[in-house]
Write a structure and sequence with these properties.
Order of helices and strands: HHHHHHHHH
CATH class of the largest domain: Mainly Alpha
Helix content: 55-70%
Distance between the termini: 90 Å
Largest sheet: none
Amino acid sequence: MSPTPPTRARIGRPPSDAATSHAVILDAVYELLKEKPASQLTMEAVAKQAKVGKPTLYKWWPSKAALIMAMFHERLAGNLEVPPTATVEATIRIKALHLIKEFNGLFGKVMADLIAEGQSDPSILRELFESHIRIRRASTVADIEQAKAKGELASDADAELLIDAIFGPIYYGLLLRHTPLTEQYGNDLIDQVFRGVRPRRS
């Protein structure tokens, strides 16, 4: 039997090192944003917290906004499972109440920070809408259109306006803090909106 050839040393960093560094950096952003708004976050602070050099950050993310967005997607913006047999009203209620719950935590803080940063950098708003909001909005539009076809909602109900009527006030509450975002608020809001779009009985 031939002797086992000696193991050759790997040249460069193992592939797992890059993934580890990536995760450590996003963890650093996550922890720092618990303490300060995105406007006060710096690449220097992230590099120090993650114990990496600034060039490592810029190798993967061209800007602070891109780095925050990456953390938002990987650490905060999960997918919500809704029972496939739920009515459209129940589905939207689940989504809205989940959003309210999330808005009362770090997810809400980072969302508000991103929207604020987007006022001076429109690319942030575009990225936020395209990569996070659009797909969820499209899914809800599809739910509403199916509900209209099944007679759950009035045939002339406008899906886009219905979504705005429910989720717009929740974002309004997040940004202006004019009223507490509670489960009761969410339920009252949904009850009020759905009164206007249920099928009319003759």
